[in-house]
Design goal:
By secondary structure, the protein is an all-alpha fold. The protein contains eight helices and no strands. The mean pLDDT is 83.
Length: 191
């Protein structure tokens, strides 16, 4: 949020240029819908979730406007992946130590599930969304072009993120991770 704010201040002052493509227009329209959905009457938790999703989506304009070369892209990906791995690790530990809040499980419908990981988020679905958004970047670090140490950290991060997403029991997060992995594979090797 701080980075996005400082970037937009620089755009207003004329020190940076804000580029928008067709994909950007669709993304910004979606961001606006998400933000406005938080102002639904009588749903105080919706505003918090909408603001969190909007904040996570601010990564898009930053990446599309600030990434000038491959080094910047790799540094940005690492800066996003490391906190994601930490959040995932906290979610896994929380689940294993039975510290997760109990209110997110419908025990009559799912008797085998006693809790869902929420980590630093208060909602397992929002955690799943965050992890699904960062999972493809963690896979990126496993590519052969990176040094061995970075690839090992990529495997560990991807494993933490995948396990934590599984422990959220958020089916939409599972589908998003699966779709993200397939899309990433297609982008890397289009044949």
């Amino acid at each position: 949020l701080l980075t996005a704010t400082s970037y937009f201040i620089k755009v207003i002052r004329g020190k940076r240029v804000f580029r928008v493509g067709i994909a950007g227009l669709a993304t910004y329209a979606f961001m606006l819908v998400i933000l406005l959905s938080g102002f639904a009457p009588g749903l105080s938790e919706t505003l918090e979730s909408a603001l969190l999703c909007f904040t996570l989506m601010l990564i898009f304009p930053l990446i599309t406007n600030l990434m000038k070369n491959r080094h910047w892209i790799n540094a940005c990906a690492a800066a996003i992946i490391f906190p994601s791995a930490v959040v995932a690790f906290i979610g896994i530990a929380e689940y294993l130590l039975v510290l997760a809040p109990q209110g997110w499980v419908d025990e009559s419908m799912y008797p085998a599930i006693s809790q869902r990981a929420v980590s630093l988020f208060r909602n397992p679905n929002i955690l799943g969304t965050y992890l699904a958004a960062t999972f493809p970047m963690s896979i990126m670090l496993v590519l052969p072009k990176f040094p061995t140490k970075v690839r090992i950290l990529g495997v560990i991060s991807a494993a933490y993120i995948a396990v934590a997403a599984t422990l959220t029991f958020s089916r939409s997060a599972w589908l998003a991770i699966f779709a993200g992995a397939i899309l990433f594979a297609v982008m890397i090797s289009p044949r």
